[in-house]
Amino acid sequence: MNARIRRTVLAAALVAGLAAGTAGPALATGSPTRTTAPAAAGTDTGALSDLIAGLPDDGATAALIRLGGAGGAWHGSAGVHDLVTGRPADPDARFRAGSVTKVFTAATVLQLASERKLSLDRPVRSYLPELIPAAYGAVTVRQLLNHTSGLPSADYPGDTVEEWYANRFHRFDARELVASATAKRPEFPAGTRQHYLNINYTVAGLLIEKVTGHGYEAEVSRRVLAPLGLRGTSFPGPDPRIHGPHNHGYQRMRLEDGTTVLRDVSVWSPTDGWAAGDIISTTADLERFLTALFQGRVVRGPLLEEMFTLPDPSVRDFVSGKAPSFSAGLSTWKLGGRQVWGKTGGRWGYNSGIGATRDLSRTLVYSINSTDAKAEGDNSLVMGVVGTVFGAPSAD
Q1: How far apart are CA 378 and CA 383, in angstroms?
Q2: What tens digit of pLDDT does each residue of 223-242 get?
Q3: What single-letter DSSP state applies at residue 278?
């Protein structure tokens, strides 16, 4: 049996196993890992290859990894383009990058601040008086960007992935989402806690539109995508499809009889995310963006420091009670004894992330087609990749 037929049979067995309510076969042979660059010094790229070589498996159907930095570059891919054909995953594929979108949004707001078209310390209501009620009159632009606004989440139809899937073509309106959020009481006084919620960046997208007079997508494209030549990056708007080469995303769902099935979720309207989470990109584009951003070629001057500045440690996380970990657009982790800055994202069928040390001595961009991409808790394959590249999480 040749490799392509074997992958097709294995993928079919995986779907059949899940439909029967089982975990599916181990798929130890999977799709071979393909590398397209020399090994990066200081990283066990053999271990990375081993991590993804068994795909597709119960947890993911494909993975794309791109390393960079002072130690060299390494690109790897594994898994399948889709479970029907079993064709090898496209290493240059486009994918939904989810909340990585927030980095682009924050960078655009900071550019506008550098041009004095808005002020980070000014109340958002002064720019959007018709949208932000008096109860949120003290919320500043900076507090939107670092999630200390106190704005509660908007209302969405459905609580389970199955309910979301049934409404996957619903078109959300950004202003209606903000109205549903601001109709509630604040979660906490602005600036006193940190709660990571999409609503902050939905408002930021509307702020960009109000200040510039242009659509959010057009403004970010003009300011960031075009200057950096990010030709594989786009904003889909209400279009539910990923145009261009892409590896299919799958989500594990439970049927009424209690059995489990994988559904292809590649076609799904992303309007619930918009300026907080709808961007489509490639690993090459995100690596270029990450490098340019950290080098000060996207946000210039002192305002770049906003992306590497956390709120005061007294501003604890609203849910966990831990110290704040989100800045303007980015988040931070201590890995292998080093401070790493970046952003992760999750859309149904797709997990993605960008990360780097501040000096760009090591960078990572990944896309993993997880079968439960928005589950609570850390994805084991993602954590394995991140841990191999940067090291284990450090104690606080």
Answers
A1: 7
A2: 999 999 999 999 999 999 99
A3: -
